[in-house]
User: Fold this.
Amino acid sequence: MAKQIVYDVDARKKLQDGVNKLADAVRGTLGPRGRAVILEKKFGSPTVIDDGVTIAKEIELEDPLENMGAQLVREVASKTNDIAGDGTTTATILAQSMLNEGIRNLTAGASGHALKRGIDKAVKTVVEELKKNHKPVKTWEDKAQIATIASNDKTIGKMIADALEKVGHEGVITVEEGKTAETNLEVVEGMQFDRGYLSPYFVTDPERMEAVLDDALVIITDKKISAMNDILPLLEKVAQTGKPFMIIAEDVEGEALATLVVNKLRGTLKVAAVKAPGFGDRRKDLLQDIATLTDGKVISEELGLKLDKAGIDMLGRAKSIIVDKENTTIVGGAGKKIEITKRVDNIRTQIKDRRGHQRGRGHRDGDEGQEGEGRGREERDQGRRRGRHHPRRRGRPAARPEVPGRDQDGLRGRSHGRPDRPQGPRGAPAPARRELRHGRLGRRRLGPQGLQRHRPRRGDRRVRQPGEVRHRRPRQGHPGGAGERGVHRRHGPDHLRPHLGHPREEEGAHGRRPPARRRRHVLRAA
Assistant:
């Protein structure tokens, strides 16, 4: 498909139309009394919704240029939703107003760079004022009011406020679609992560399809377990205690998984195995959280701990462990309160540092952009002011930059008019190899004294005097060799030589084109 190329006013007009169409559709949903929007679905019944970002994602315009403008505002709504979780409609309306006012000023002759700098300064000022006037949410009533405005339902607002009161601001609240007509609140104590059992044969409650382990031990490792010999010594020690246990590893497969299933079915062991949560560095942090909660250790070769040499004292303990197909919940870990508090404080510090780093990086990028634009303007102004005095503008060569450690006055063998030639100072050490260079004016030798000019001796060749021009003497027996003046070497007299014509017409008696006239150079003796 061919691409459309649009410039200047036409391009801005199309983008503005697309932005206005999307923003006008979202504008009606602003505020607690905003109106709903009906979205058509290709399959199924239409959707009634008042969420700005959802409406923006569903809008596709027919004109490609207008659709491009709509995509710009859609990106604004999506980023606002990812960062703040709300305020998508407000962000869309602000983007529309900024674009319309900016285009109006551009049409009036304003500078686009000046508008950009003004917008950056205004944003910085507005953010500072908002921080001064913000009101922290502390009471249950404030939480219920905010949740009610966001959900447009008082019952759901009160339920969310109750959940926040029970789990705290640092707790995790998950909203799931229920299979009944009622909305209920379920609070899970302990720690839960999204990993289920590796085999359904580990299930102890067939009705609920859950594996429940009471007063269990926890083996925590970041290693993949595939051979039974890796875990057999530790299993023998655990079997002697008679307690159920759970294995949390990168993966359990092959012979090791088959052995665990067979012993579970025979009743020899009460066991369940799950994969470690997360990926990469996050997996290490989550395993350390589980170890701190259960008062165990992460058996990792990076720490010098091997699974076949681990003891019972390295295992964690928990009052109850519930494992279903998708989640694992650890309740009543035996971790020490002091260690848990230290771990929580460490996590809080990491969260604050990460947020501060992201916030500082955003301000830094904006400040550097403004400073870079300011420096660019200053350099351009200085260049305009000193342009008429620049040495190259007056036909003079620019001063050669000084090279540290080199005597500018003591150079020998300096090439005339060729500053890119290597030049050596007096007394320079002999190079590792000797190099010969042939130029138009003679041969240059790179020797112990640096780059030097090799001149023929007086006895070898006559040295021409200053101003003497070199003439080539015609050969004997050649046309023009009898001292005739004005006779061409290959083509005879001048009146027989064609002057202007096709190159083929200039071919002489020998069937070849005459050679180009050689330029005569003046060679002066030093």
Q: What stands out?
A: The first helix runs from residue 8 to 27. The domain at 191-346 is CATH 3.50.7.10 (GroEL). The chain has a mean pLDDT of 75.
